[in-house]
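Hello Y.,

Per our agreement to keep a running log of every chain we model this quarter, I'm adding this entry. I've kept the format consistent with earlier entries: sequence first, then predicted structure.
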Amino acid sequence: MAPPAGVLDGGWGWVIVAASFTAQLLAYGSPQSVGVLYPEWLHAFQESKGMTAWVGSLVAGVGLIASPICSACVDNFGARPVTIFSGVMVAGGLMLSAFAPNVQFLIFSYGIVVGLGCGLVYAATLTITCQYFDKRRGLALGIVTTGTSVGAFIYASAQNELIVLFGLGGCLLMIGAVALNIMACAGFMRPLNMPGYYLRQKAALERNTEGQLFEKPPSDDLKITAGSTSPTAEKSLTVKESLIAIDAKDLPVQTEKKKGSLLAGLTIMRVIKKKQQAYCKYMHCMYEILQDQSMVAFCIGIFLFSLGAFPPVLFIEDVAQSGGLVEEVSVIPLVSIGAIATCVGKLALGVLVDIRWINGIHLYAFTMFAGGVALLLIPTTKTYLGLQILAAVLGFFSGNWSLTSYITTTIVGLDKLTQAHGILMFFGGFGIMLGPPVVGWFFDWTQSYDLAFYFSGGCVELGAVILFLLNLPCCNRKHSKNDRPDVRYVSNCDKVASVA
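Predicted structure for the entry above:
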């Protein structure tokens, strides 16, 4: 059922925006500024750079790859319970990481546990924001998603100071304790619609107990057992237990058993056939999406950009220290500079893509090309000021993530946005997971970051060329006549929950 019109685009919705912004800040603050922690882990565990890089790559990539599962959890249980559970995961993972005896344990506690928690927070906050906004949905989502960049800017400096004062373990314990406030943010996420799990449960209870409450009880249920004080005590207990214990998935089987095992078997077969048809339809839709040349080019571009552009977030501080440009992390780390530049880039590129004569795909290809040039210049930079400038430039053009849903809608349309965005996030998450370990292995092999960043820059430039060439009118006639189709925006949150 659609929410009342008076509830949308204002009122409590802005409280939801503030709570979601804060939740993303608290969840993504440490993972987005993991580059500050990376040199400390190298010094503490004395592992290779390639092995240690898995920690930062997993915490960023796991949430993206698991985004379909995270979205399903929000759809079934609601934003509030999922946010509470994610707060426990993020805080628990950070606190466990304070006691990590080796990098392998850190890969699990920080990379997987915190990464999954961040994925749940991201899905929950975007979904609840979509439910409360319609006409101002873009503005609301833009504010909410800047929480990740603001969190990276704040946490980079905060973690640096906490490490100096309390050590690496004390820093992670305090950051984990602060992350518990994600559960407080969940308290403000009042749902407009009941989640799917509760609706099915309610329907199951009503259908199963309707006959039980009004039909004449069997004579056996009226017998007074030893120790009972009322002839209806046993019957009332039976009804109460049924109200609590019945699960919606088991209801068809339980009800049909009274009519015979044959009908129960037919019901099970009907449910299996329905699920199989839905699965086949979903796979057919995925197949149709991947038949589109522009979509395939965009997936390749996203993968190559993630493979090459994410490693600087993890390695940029170590690059400065290894090159002798700075003895320790500065008061305003390079990670903070890149984070605030990414925040500005998201807003600026979002404004540019709304201009009618600008092609969104070509704009994305240009941001990839410019980011690749910045990556290729990092090995040639011999001053800390130069690294600061390149970190800002790379961070600004990394704000092109805000264009992904817009471009996806342009290519496949709004009806297939959910499936197409899931495919893109899989490619992006896979690239993010592989990028840092590959760069770390290059350093372990050559004892220098030069070849690693040449490889990263080359991957990004290759992705820009592929994306640009495969979307030229002469190569792709499908979108040449209408590069900017009119999109009819609807209130279906499943189709716009990933807009930012």
